[in-house]
Design goal:
- This protein has 333 residues and is of the alpha/beta class.
- It has helices spanning 45-52, 75-78, 97-102, 117-129, 145-159, 175-192, 203-209, 227-232, 235-240, 273-282, 318-332, and strands at residues 6-12, 25-29, 34-39, 60-65, 68-69, 82-85, 163-167, 195-199, 212-216, 223-225, 245-248, 253-256, 263-266, 286-287, 295-300, 303-308, 311-315.
- The chain has 2 domains: 6-240, P-loop containing nucleotide triphosphate hydrolases (Rossmann fold); 259-332, 3-Layer(aba) Sandwich (Glutaredoxin).
- Strand 13 (263-266), helix 10 (273-282) and strand 14 (286-287) form a beta-alpha-beta unit.
- Helix 4 crosses helix 5.
């Protein structure tokens, strides 16, 4: 059996020796892993990624990359093993995009620092994969936040390391670009056996794409597991619930507990049930069981049937349905 690519042993992290941001954390990461790090602001996601990549030292414990402590790597050797994209972009804004991406090749080039044919091909391929070939000749200052982010990701791809660490890589991307990024990372894992660890606040994106989640919450142990297991076992609720919010495991999103709207029961066989529920929640209504509901929604021949007290209403589409419910709410209240 192949040895783990990353071994984390009793790791404590932070910027002062007085207090660790997390209880001691141990984990083994195999080649080809796709891990998402989630947690609220200030829980230590970026600090953990920087510690794993050797940018900052751990308070205690060890991180091994290929059975070797990350602290024992020289900068040059480490750059051949792990590439990292941070939320801050420490790069000259007046450098051209292709030159930024080419910086990823410098750990591989010789004494004279010149790109050979293979290096140039890697730069071209990385820009193509990230969809920024058309940005050649543009300086970083002329790019949008999303374009700069794609450029830094292309630089990490050009570096061609077995481990890729990304801190909020989708933060500045539009939603189609987020999906394309996830598809790109998964294809690199499948075709080139890359190991990817990334952080994100986009829970929907993480649940749909990551193979493993590391969930962080202040003062609590990091929980590791598949997205499905963490949802079904209630860890998403435990780690992210607030007094006014809860994670709906059936619907896959957070819902507002402070709403005082009418209680609505939605039959499981109505068309477009997910979006009907979305519309109800968005309008401050509560989803509940049939026996305690104020309003019941069923369907017949692609129409919605709304039952309230002794009355029934036929609604041809979602907008009509919500409009009628709103009218009933104002009448009842």
């Amino acid at each position: 059996m192949k040895a783990p690519l990353i071994e984390i042993n009793e790791l404590e992290i932070g910027y002062t020796s007085s207090k660790s941001l997390i209880p001691p954390f141990s984990q083994q990461v195999n080649e080809g892993a796709f891990i998402a790090l989630i947690g609220s602001n200030g829980t230590g996601k970026s600090t953990l990624l920087k510690t794993i990549s050797g940018i900052i030292e751990p308070l205690s414990g060890t991180v091994l990359l290929n059975k070797r402590s990350v602290e024992d790597y020289s900068s040059e050797d480490k750059a051949l093993v792990v590439s990292i994209v941070l939320t801050d972009l420490p790069v000259d804004y007046y450098i051209r995009t292709e030159d930024v991406v080419a910086l990823g090749r410098y750990p591989h080039i010789g004494f004279w620092g010149r790109l050979d044919k293979h290096d140039k091909e890697m730069v071209e391929e990385s820009m193509l994969l990230c969809g920024i070939s058309h940005l050649k000749g543009r300086t970083m200052v002329s790019l949008s936040d999303g374009e700069r982010q794609k450029t830094m990701i292309a630089k990490a791809l050009a570096q061609d390391t077995p481990i890729i660490i990304l801190d909020e890589p989708a933060a500045f991307l539009d939603y189609p670009a987020k999906i394309e990024l996830m598809q790109l990372l998964k294809s690199l894992i499948a075709s080139k056996k890359k190991t990817v660890i990334f952080s994100s606040h986009d829970l929907d994106l993480v649940l749909r794409n990551a193979d493993t989640i590391w969930a962080m919450s202040p003062g609590m142990p990091i929980i590791s597991g598949s997205p499905e297991k963490l949802v079904v076992d209630g860890f998403i609720n435990n780690y992210f619930d607030r007094n006014s919010l809860t994670f709906d495991t059936e619907f896959g999103q957070f819902t507002d507990l402070t709403t005082s709207g009418l209680k609505v029961y939605v039959s499981g066989d109505i068309p477009h049930i997910r979006w009907v529920k979305n519309a109800l929640l968005r309008n401050g209504l509560q989803l509940t069981a049939k026996q305690i509901s104020d309003i019941q929604i069923e369907s017949n021949s692609n129409q919605y049937i709304l039952y309230c007290a002794a009355e029934s209403y036929f609604c041809r589409d979602i907008d009509t349905l919500i409009k009628k419910i709103t009218e009933l709410c104002s009448r009842i209240n």
